[in-house]
Amino acid sequence: MATEPATTQDVPTVDSRWWYVVAATPLVFVVTWILGIWFFGLALFSVGLGGGEPFLFGPVAIVAVFVALFVGLLVTAMLVLFPVAIYLDAEAVNRAGVGWQPDSILYALVAAVSAVATGFTLAVPLALYYLWQRHEHVGVP
Description:
Oligomer: single chain
Radius of gyration: 21 Å
Distance between the termini: 34 Å
């Protein structure tokens, strides 16, 4: 006697897209580091090691200022959004009853401390661990 395969109606779904913000955290960290290295290279170039025009003048400086402002706004937004997103997503996972009950308050507190105190250094492993656990129990991401 063959059993019928499970349909999509049998699998509980999580009604949350907040995991996108959690997934963006490692990406923001990597982009910030790459741009930091770029700024360091521009600073070396500006003191004459590259033989170019000074960093404080010209179109390169204008681009650098806009990039710095964009990155600053992005990191500031992530400082607020990452703990909120992990809390709201964990709450949605808890409500869905998928067999995994993440402690949403603990995740949010650890996310806030890791983002603020370590400059996202420990937020990256936390985000990756949360997404891995979410994938194991929910299937998405």
